[in-house]
Amino acid sequence: MRAIIIDDERLARAELKKLLQDFPEVEVIDEAANAEEGIAKIESQHPDLIFLDIQMPGKTGFDMLSELERTPQVIFTTAYDEFALKAFEVNALDYLLKPVEPKRLADAIQKLQPGESREIKHETENVNNSILHENDQVFVKDGERCWFVKLGDIRLFESVGNYAKVFFGTNKPLILKSLNALEERLDEKFFFRANRKHIVNLRMIEKIEPYFNGGLLLELKGGEKIEVSRRQTVKFKEMMSL
């Protein structure tokens, strides 16, 4: 996969290029120090992927993307986390904060689709309904705070009216999404609907105990205790049995 790094900081380009040496599937074919240079090199060399800074002299990374008819796959690299929402809206593969961590870079590289270029995604487009897998990064926004979270790191979804509370690490943000809508997109090999109010990450279960009326009580790694309804207990035992 042919890639161009677009960043006004020479040292940042050099560091990213060095990290990418561990990923033979990505070949860095060129670099650009600003948006104008980036546009010219994308149009002449047609890369599969660009690593794009946001804050650059002159045009921003978003300005640059808006001038392209079709974009390569985009991984943002920036020192600022406040642009995460906008990055999500333009269908970026990932949003890496500087200094780029090797593990986060590896997660982003895993999402690459060979030979695929992407049209700019606008807010008016249909909602994506594809199944999400445990290694996918998902965007979570609660008020002014934003996160890109690996789905496998989310241990629990809890229904709160028309919202869902998302449990990961010490965070519990609310998102405007029903539990039923979430269930449709989550891989059932990893996420299980325990009852009307909760979806649990099966890999985050630490303890299972018999519970009232033939149900089960699950204790998660974060300390949460979730009751599995009697009906779902039957399904849970079928799934988890040899």
Layout of SSEs?
Blueprint (H helix, E strand, L loop, with lengths): L1 E5 L3 H10 L7 E6 L2 H11 L3 E4 L8 H6 L6 E6 L5 H6 L4 E4 L4 H9 L26 E6 L2 E6 L5 E5 L2 E5 L6 E2 L3 H7 L5 E3 L4 E4 L3 E6 L5 E5 L4 E4 L1 H11 L2
Parallel strand pairs: 1-2, 1-3, 3-4, 4-5
Antiparallel strand pairs: 6-7, 8-9, 8-12, 9-10, 11-12, 13-14, 14-15
Largest sheet: 5 strands, parallel
C-alpha end-to-end distance: 41 Å
Strand line-up across the major sheet = 2-1-3-4-5
What Rg, in angstroms, do the CA atoms define?
A: 21 Å
Shape: elongated
Number of strands: 15
Total helices: the number is: 7
Percent of residues in beta strands? 25-35%
Number of separate structural domains: 2
Q: What is the correct CATH architecture of the largest domain?
A: 3-Layer(aba) Sandwich
The overall pLDDT, averaged over residues, is 86
SSE string, helix = H, strand = E?
A: EHEHEHEHEHEEEEEHEEEEEH
Helix/strand-derived category reads: alpha/beta
DSSP helix fraction: 10-25%
Q: List low-confidence stretches.
A: 116-128
CATH class call of the largest domain: Alpha Beta
What keywords describe this structure?
single chain; 242 residues; alpha/beta; Rossmann fold; OB fold (Dihydrolipoamide Acetyltransferase, E2P); 2 domains; 5-stranded parallel β-sheet; 5-stranded antiparallel β-sheet; 7 helices; 15 strands; elongated
